[in-house]
């Protein structure tokens, strides 16, 4: 089913149909050196992750549920919201598509392998 959906979206794009979407860019440069250059394009239920450059050679992604409210001051976050629903890494210069992804997810990207929290900051061990 995922492949059929991807084929339909591809055919729409081929014939100039736009299905809308969102683009999320992560671009960090320090002293003229690319630390992380990544783009995530989300259209309907397809997410395309494009790791353009990374200081470490890999872009590390963590996906979190998007329907989680921010915890109240001093309160612990909901355990279902604190853990990523998916984690993966892409080599610089490569892409990955995920078809059938849940809507409204949150993307954190880093050049480091450390696990990230829903705030996109490294989690303490």
Automatic annotation (TrEMBL):
User: Which superkingdom?
Assistant: Bacteria
Q: Give the record's keywords alphabetically.
A: Lipoprotein
| Protein name (database record) | Lipoprotein
